[in-house]
Amino acid sequence: MANCTIILDAMGGDHAPDVIVYGARQALARRRDLKLIFVGDSNRLKPLLEKAELSPANYKIVHTDQVVSMDEVPRAALQYKPRASVLLAAELLARDQGDVMLSAGNTGATILACSQKIERLPGVERSALAAVLPSMRQRPQDPGKTMMLDVGATLHCTSNQLVSFAIMGTHYFREVLGFTQPRVGLLNIGEEDTKGHQILVETNARLRRLGGIQFVGNVEGKDIMRGLAEVVVTEGYVGNIVLKSMEGLAENAIEMIRKIWQHSVFYKLGLLLLSPAIKRIKRRVDYTEYGGAPILGFKKLIFKAHGRSNEKAIGNAILVSASAVEHDLVGKISQAVEESLLPLTK
Predict the structure, then answer these.
(1) What is the distance between the alpha carbons of residues 202 and 159, in angstroms, rounded to a whole number?
(2) Measured at the alpha carbon of residue 114, what is the angle toward residues 109 and 115, in degrees to the nearest 5?
(3) Reported pTM
(4) Distance of alpha carbon 3 from alpha carbon 291, whole angstroms
(5) What is residue 247's predicted lDDT score, i.e. its pLDDT?
(6) Where in the chain is the domain with CATH 3.40.718.10?
């Protein structure tokens, strides 16, 4: 698709609007056909855009001086800031002013703003925030990536909602990540089909009957990064805890390596020998390499970047967003839900 238009919440994130503008510059260096709409304070954006030397042909600014900060309560903030950048961006997307929206701002506010302005797909009861994680390659053809959803949009889920997450995650993996046969696992406390509470038992049974996906059964927490399934389905409450635990583990590992480095000259020599491998591992676990995370289930495409995103992360998120548009992700998810999920609910 030529001239894909991406709506950017230019004020969202810890380092906005600077990283949004410079991330956009990185994306435009690789895709000059992209069109960008920066939603934010024009008094701050114009000098940055001039400094970044972006061509005016590639962007326009929609001005607002209202911003939802990272520590604000989403519902209250959106109520008292009706022209908040994230809310205005969602409204522009709902009015077909762009093809996809990207925000690095307050996650709750982003999801709530989209819920207020954009309809969900027929048959999809709740949206899902996905996270793409590095994983082991069990087979030569494995992608070395795992998508977990939901990680915070829908805290507690029904069986119907978990099944819809499996369908949406499968199609995202196929269309955007380019792996045609993703395996789906249901996160549980054991591998047996009867493990877990009633909703998980029911979901397991429904996924085994569902066509169009490759369901491999229950997976445990230890299996997420082992690469036993490319799509791991869970409710948002559990998914968010798992995701934050992984982030904390990675940060602690880096801190441990740093302390070891400072402890002894012999340790430094050992780490120097291991440095090529350590760099490869760091690259694999670096969230900036993966771009934004999709918020699936709406009639429009929405992507959420990490609040701490730097310009590299924003640039990659813009490119991933454009790829999702060009692969008609929403259309294919909508068709799959209509063919696979809706008949099960009748």
Answers:
(1) 6
(2) 95
(3) 0.86
(4) 20
(5) 72
(6) 1-124+297-346, 126-287
Fold for 126-287, please state it: Isopropylmalate Dehydrogenase (3.40.718)
Superfamily for the 1-124+297-346 domain: Isopropylmalate Dehydrogenase (3.40.718.10)
Pairing verdict, β 183-187 and 214-219? parallel
Dist CA 207 CA 220 (whole Å): 17
Percent helix / strand / coil, the chain, rounded to 5: 50, 15, 35
Q: What's the rounded Cα separation, in Å, for the pair 259 and 254?
A: 9
CB burial of residue 176 (10 Å; 0-12, 13-18, 19+): buried
Q: Is there a contact between 61 and 121 (Cβ–Cβ < 8 Å)?
A: no
CB 98 within 8 A of CB 37: yes
Contact 341, 163 (CB under 8 A): yes
Distance from the Cα of residue 272 to its chain's centroid:
34
| pLDDT 10s digits, 52-107 | 989 899 999 999 999 999 999 999 999 999 999 999 999 999 999 999 999 999 99
Q: For residue 275, with 0-12 CB atoms within 10 Å meaning exposed, 13-18 middle and 19 or more buried, which class applies? A: exposed
178 residue type, one letter: G
* Res. 250 pLDDT band, cuts 50 70 90: low
